[in-house]
Amino acid sequence: MAWPVSHSLSPLLHRYWLKKYAINGTYDPIAVTPNEFPAMLRSLPARGFSGVNVTLPHKIAALKSVDTLDGVAQRTGAVNTIIVKDDGTLHGFNTDGFGFMANIVNVQPDWVAEAGPAVVLGAGGAARAVCVALQDAGAPEIRILNRTRAKAENLAANLGLPIAVHDWEERHEALREGAFLVNTTSLGMTGMPSLDLDLAALPPDASVCDIVYSPLETPLLAAARARGNPTIDGLGMLLHQARPGFEAWFGHAPDVTDSLRQAMLSAMGQ
Ligand code: NAP
Hints:
The protein is an alpha/beta fold. The chain is 37% helix and 14% strand. It is built from eleven helices and ten strands. A six-stranded parallel β-sheet has the order 7-6-5-8-9-10, with helices on both faces. It has a four-stranded mixed β-sheet with strand order 1-3-4-2, with helices on both faces. Strand 6, helix 7 and strand 7 (163-167) form a beta-alpha-beta unit. The chain is globular. NADP nicotinamide-adenine-dinucleotide phosphate (NAP) is lined by residues 96, 99, 122-127, 146-148, 151, 184-187, 189, 211-213, 234, 237-238, 241.
């Protein structure tokens, strides 16, 4: 469920898995306005749905509309996946942080959050999921920087230590001694300006992740790769975040494979 929904890659992804595992199910896009959202959600059990993904602009409304809530979703302040339980109640959780972390570990199996400070650029919805995941993985320090500092302050106040807020203007210097850098802003996305960031202070072995996945190699990732930093693109996060929902609804744990990545990239025209 989204508004609008036509841009969503999720139907392609879930239908790929349904076909691969020969499961007799469907995954359909539903365009729902914010006004219609609560009633539409409540109609799911009677209409035979096993569950639903919710995305913009419904992720916060979903948090308030479900009957039971997972702890990670509560801390993230948003729900992106809902299961219809046997008794017709709705259980909400958030898989963005899971997808973010599963992608990193898949690309860099030796990566550990404990290695050193993490620098997070952005303080929107995705940044919250990323910060919760880094917190839970044991990052010793999370430096958050956002154009609108108040939003970063709010995130840090809600989530607590080890998150520390820095001014957006300090972003170049905040990379010093960082072990991990992640862009969660929409900068670098097709149609948006590039992220203006000087990587000079970033240690050469720090991993650099961009959760923007269109283009697959953002200007940030290209610059990081050129200076030898290990890089992680954002497509894997999108693919991995879908796994828990698919497994809960259809009873099969799906794989993220190179063929799936290729199918998604072709659909994205890349
Ligand atoms: P959001 O809640 O709208 O947050 C947008 C963030 O970008 C805010 O921190 C905003 O700063 C910052 N920003 C926007 N324009 C800026 C500019 N000109 N200069 C500096 N900062 C700017 O969006 P979101 O849901 O967090 O998503 C952010 C990005 O992550 C999107 O590109 C989205 O596609 C991607 N994403 C990817 C995945 C995945 O699975 N790979 C999942 C979720 C999101 P202000 O607070 O100052 O406005």
